[in-house]
Automatic annotation (TrEMBL):
Official protein name in the record: Endo/exonuclease/phosphatase domain-containing protein
Polar residues: compositionally biased ranges: 283-298
Family annotation (PANTHER family): PROTEIN CBG08968 (PTHR21459:SF2)
Region annotation Disordered: where it falls in the sequence: 283-305
Coiled coil stretches, renumbered: none
Annotated GO MF terms: catalytic activity
Source species, domain of life: Eukaryota
Length: 1113
């Protein structure tokens, strides 16, 4: 553990103060040996600026030496701290005598506190904690003196001012010219007077009340300007002169900070400060309100918002940061016209926010991701284990997600949780995670290129600590973090320590976290309030790499934080243009392929060279007639959203807790929500199923890709693509097994079974093979996707026919057909290389040839009954349900040996219990379905019922119906448990779309949704129909047998069935559920084809709300 930092001396006694003053006196001679100190240089620059602007040059006061300036600043610190506790009532009239004035002031303050209706203020007034006096004490010839109200602390003062601004009490507002503000410093008074003069001059020029002042800034009011009050032009503000009219052409000129204190005039400008030589940077800030970081991104001057009260002159204040050398001297103006805001940034950019449930804020997160931050840190995600990463990632692979969710139970409610979204370019790697009572923590490493081309790393720790967290949990967290601290260690998160004063590095009570930060010499970089009047969200680091810490767009009631790390950002990957097949000229491509003489071109070539000729010819056509994509320089969000976001960013950077910043943030959030609704409406109105499924996939399905950091079998971390490729190749080669070549027995011709022979391939077989391919833009080694074969299927039959027959006759396969693009797919969330499985992406032409051969070989084996009867996989006429139904009554022994008993086993996606019940399986699929329903309502904003019902039918209902022939419940509890998913979905849909409430049967009737019980019964009848007609091959003697009636009845048919057992033997068999309805169907439909039978069954009215239904209405 590094040594504790040396504590700075405190003025705890007069002796200590005398020692410090004596020490300064011994040093001031050396400091004053320079021609001028920094303060005098700034003063001279101020005088030169005034001369350029045409103002009368004032004679500068005698220059102060450095020691005197420092001593004066120390003496003034107490005075400025007292100003932070005072409010000023301007315009309060006085009485004829001081006694009457005092009594009138007391009565007015009592009435004001009573009108504010705040118990704490009234109690403080009664206890004598609120004092007041007129300033100055002697009236002299001053017309009106201000009334100063003194509070015990700054927090109470701010609460008092906030109530006055929000409630606008008549005690203050009923008299013109009355207002209450905070007690201003001298330089702030000058700013206010300058803004008042500018407002007066502008109002006089336009002849109306259009401009005013707020917080020492010039603002423009909304709407049409009101007429000037009577005599307005004859009552100029104090300090007004005709010279003020010279600034009317550009009123926004007040961009420097003027400071007047004891006859000393100076200009402090962040751009000309030298932190290493500025002795004032080591002092405590003299006035912390208002605090504006001049290095904020987007804090350009002259920002104009025409839709609300707008700040004409953004005035920076003195910013004496705890670590001023970490602040860059200037920041570029804010712009988000590019697709990635930080695409050209030289540093790693980070965004932090307390989301307070990310489920309903995916549209905000998507916008933040579009800005191109390298890291996005989120606290209070409120996600659980049932929520997928689609909330965070969507379907794009731009980020890698790391999560630590709160484990909820009966005692621990929802909330908490942290998540980190990191660009894969940083090669992030999860180090550890921690969870305790009220605390969640994630620790990752990011890697970036250094000057030596080696990868350097920074360890990032994201923490959420609940306000109700116990001391033992905090101790456990610090014990968890302690061994993980590296050379560059950054802590970020919502720690909820409002009592710690990070400016003065003090804590009113013993705080383990504060001691931990001091022990490791970490610097806290957030100097603005993140929630209310407190700094709850922190950015701490033990090295000097944090830059540009500024407030940003809030996700909830906490101000978000954007900052950067002073390390080189990773280089952008090379852009590889892709073919835009939806813009291809397929007519020209097909025409050129058809007009080519393939017989002449391929007749003299062998199989290998014929395949190469065909591939090169087709690729040359695609290069000519298929356009390629280019890197888009613009964001996919509309311009008005980007402008509104820029305004919100500027307002947050200037005053994060102001009403204007909150208003702009709400406006942007509403506009972004409206934009999402419009996108959804356009997809719905287009009637394009592909566009709808693409939108749903983007919102509901997260991308699956290999994580950036891979752990090799020997435990080493692999980060570069070359190392990963070699490791995957080595691992897949080690686990793959070569096919077993058993010695073939000499073939003995069978008198009954002919030998298999495929003399040639026909064009019809090729067209059937092409039709079996999904028309998509897939990757393949020959760069010819399925969509190419689907669009040009009639043109390419001729060359494929020649190549396929050459391959058959020559007994050779082209080498490219044996190659594949191997894609590692992670089966779990682990980074270990052993958890990946290879997926081989072969050529599309290989799949066509393979399907033709498989079809012929399977047909030969089926025709001569050469398949084993128990084989269910890879055979037509079999499915998972037939396999389970065949084993339903025969499991128990294999070759006479009893099987070992297991409480449950997962077979082809269905969880089967030893008791032959499916309670666990139903609970599992219901949980998944409810999570998907939640995701639908969180990711969509439209009020169109059709969108939600289609999304439910596409993404939720299949989860509840897969394999239902096997596990369909026969108890009331389980049937209603499943039906509760659709019941809850329809209720929430009606609330979302503002449809009047109705009962469940009426809701699903309006949505054209049958009950899930009805759909399961339909599946049973369809399965029974295919089984009777032989479309499914399995032993059904234990399930049912045909038993036509001896005499003909009106509602009977020849395919009537009976059970081969007594009814109580099985209540959950599909035959038991469907036999009554099957036997009463008309003979016309039971003998029809599967497609016609399905159409007839689906056209029948719902049969769920009958007397034998298990549903409770």
């Amino acid at each position: 553990m590094p040594p504790k930092p040396i504590s700075s001396p405190t003025l705890s006694s007069p002796d200590a103060a005398a020692k410090i003053i004596k020490l300064l006196e011994t040093l001031h001679v050396k400091l004053d040996s320079k021609p001028q100190c920094e303060c005098n240089q700034l003063r001279q620059e101020l005088m030169e600026l005034k001369k350029v602007r045409g103002k009368s040059a004032e004679q500068p006061p005698p220059p102060l030496d450095t020691y005197s300036a420092v001593k004066m600043a120390i003496n003034d610190a107490a005075a400025y701290s007292e100003k932070a506790k005072r409010a000023v009532w301007v315009g309060r009239p006085e009485e004829s005598t001081p006694e009457l004035t005092l009594a009138s002031d007391q009565k007015a303050i009592e009435e004001l506190c009573a009108e504010l209706n705040d118990g704490s203020l009234s109690q403080a007034l009664n206890d004598g904690k609120i004092r007041y006096h007129r300033h100055p004490e002697v009236k002299a010839d001053r017309k009106k003196r201000i009334l100063k109200i003194v509070f015990t602390d700054e927090k109470t003062r701010d609460q008092f001012l906030s109530l006055i601004r929000s409630k606008r009490p008549s005690t203050v507002s009923r008299v013109p010219g009355n207002f209450v503000r905070r007690d201003l410093c001298p330089y702030e008074l000058q700013l206010e007077r300058k803004a008042r003069i500018d407002a007066y001059a502008l109002n006089c020029k336009i002849g109306g009340l259009a401009y005013g002042i707020r917080d020492e800034k010039l603002i423009k009011f909304n709407g049409i300007p009101r007429p000037l009050p009577a005599g307005y032009e004859t009552r100029p503000p104090r300090g007004y002169s005709d010279l003020a009219l010279l600034n009317l052409t550009n009123p926004a000129i007040n961009t420097s900070l003027f400071l007047q204190s004891n006859g000393m005039n100076m200009t402090l400008n962040e751009s000309n400060r030298n932190p290493s030589s500025d002795i004032l940077s080591t002092l405590t800030p003299m006035q912390s309100k208002p605090t504006v970081n001049t290095t904020a991104k987007g804090s350009g001057t002259g920002a104009v918002d025409r839709s609300s009260s707008e700040v004409i002159v953004p005035i920076p204040s003195i910013h004496l940061s705890v670590s001023s050398d970490c602040i860059s001297p200037s920041s570029p103006s804010f712009s988000i016209t590019s697709k990635s805001l930080f695409s050209d940034s030289k540093h790693i950019e980070l965004f932090y926010s307390n989301a307070r449930s990310i489920r309903r804020k995916s549209h905000l997160l998507s916008f933040i991701k579009s800005l191109g931050y390298h890291l996005i840190l989120l606290c209070e995600t409120w996600l659980t284990c049932d929520d997928g990463d689609a909330f965070l990632l969507g379907s794009q692979g731009d980020y890698v997600a790391f999560r630590k969710d709160r484990i909820t139970n009966a005692e621990i409610s929802r909330g908490g949780g942290v998540a980190i979204l990191c660009s894969p370019l940083l090669n992030p790697f999860l180090i550890a995670s921690f969870s305790s009572d009220g605390i969640e923590c994630l620790v990752i490493d990011i890697h970036f290129p250094s000057q030596s081309n080696a990868l350097s790393s920074i360890r990032i720790c994201l923490i959420y600590r609940s306000p109700s967290c116990s001391a033992s949990s905090l101790t456990s967290l610090l014990s968890f973090i302690d061994p993980l601290i590296s050379n560059s260690f950054l802590i970020c998160g919502d720690l909820n320590f409002p009592s710690i004063d990070w400016t003065r590095l003090t804590s009113p009570s013993n705080n383990d976290f504060f001691s931990f930060v001091c022990d490791y010499r970490m610097t806290q970089f957030v100097d603005f309030k993140t929630r209310g009047d407190n700094i709850l969200d922190l950015v701490l680091c033990n090295t000097n790499i944090v830059r540009n810490v500024t407030p940003s767009l809030p996700f909830a009631d906490h101000t978000s934080i954007s900052f950067s790390l002073g390390v080189p950002s990773p280089p952008l990957g090379d852009f590889v243009p892709s073919r835009l097949y939806h813009l291809a000229d397929w007519e020209s491509i097909s025409s050129l392929i058809s007009s080519h003489d393939w017989t002449l071109a391929l007749s003299s070539l062998d199989t290998e060279h014929a395949s190469i000729y065909f591939i090169n010819f087709c690729n040359s056509l695609l290069e000519t007639f298929v356009p390629k994509s280019s890197r888009s320089p613009f964001s996919h969000y509309p311009k008005h959203l980007r402008i509104l976001y820029g305004k919100s960013q500027r307002a947050s950077s200037l005053a994060s807790n102001s009403m204007q910043a909150a208003s702009l943030a709400k406006r942007f959030e509403r506009a972004l929500r409206v934009h999402s609704e419009r996108v959804e409406s356009r997809v719905i109105d287009s009637k394009n199923p592909k566009a709808f499924y693409s939108l749903c996939k983007t919102r509901l399905s997260s991308s699956k890709s290999a994580p950036p950091g891979i752990i090799d079998l020997n435990g080493s971390l692999l980060l570069t693509n070359k190392d990963k490729a070699l490791a995957f190749s080595k691992y897949f080669a080690s686990v793959s097994t070569l096919p077993m070549h058993a010695p073939l027995r000499p073939s003995v011709p069978s008198p009954t079974i002919p030998l298999f022979d495929l003399p040639s391939i026909s064009p019809a077989q090729i067209l059937a093979g092409i039709a079996s391919l999904a028309p998509k833009c897939n990757f393949s080694p020959d760069c010819l996707p399925n969509i190419f074969y689907a669009k040009c299927k009639f043109s390419i039959v001729s060359p494929l026919l020649i190549i396929f027959n050459k391959s058959l006759h020559s007994k050779s396969i082209p080498s490219l057909w044996k190659q594949a693009i191997v894609k590692p797919i992670p089966k779990t969330s682990s980074n270990a290389i052993s958890t990946f499985r290879p997926i081989s992406l072969t050529c599309s032409v290989t799949k066509i040839f393979e399907k033709i051969l498989i079809s012929e070989i399977t047909s030969y084996l089926e025709r001569h009954n050469l398949f084993d009867f128990n084989q269910a996989g890879f055979r037509s006429g079999t499915c998972p349900s037939t396999r389970r139904n065949a084993l339903w009554y025969t499991m128990g022994k294999i070759n006479g040996t009893p099987l070992s008993v297991s409480p449950s086993i997962k077979d082809l996606g269905v969880l089967m219990q030893s008791s032959l019940k499916f309670n666990d399986h139903i609970s599992r699929i219901v949980s998944k379905a409810r999570a998907k329903v939640n995701l639908i309502f969180k990711c969509f904003f439209s009020t169109e019922p059709g969108l939600y019902s289609r999304a439910f039918s596409t993404f939720v209902r299949p989860l509840l119906e897969y394999g239902s022939v096997v596990w369909s419940p026969h108890t009331v509890t389980l049937a209603n448990h499943i039906e509760g998913v659709q019941r809850n979905f329809s209720k929430r849909l009606f609330i979302r779309c503002r449809i009047p409430y109705s009962l469940y049967p009426d809701r699903i009737a309006q949505l054209s949704l049958p009950t899930l019980e009805h759909r399961r019964l339909i599946s049973d009848i369809l399965f029974l129909h295919k089984s009777i007609h032989g479309f499914y091959s399995y032993d059904r003697t234990n399930l049912f047998k045909l038993s036509p009636l001896a005499r003909s009845l009106r509602r009977s048919h020849s395919l009537r069935i009976v059970l081969p057992y007594s009814l109580p033997k099985s209540h959950s068999n599909f035959v038991t559920r469907a036999i009554d309805r099957w036997n009463v169907l008309s003979a016309e439909f039971v003998h029809s084809s599967p497609s016609n039978f399905r159409s007839h069954i689906l056209s029948l009215p719902s049969i769920s709300f009958t007397s034998d239904s298990l549903l409770r209405l």
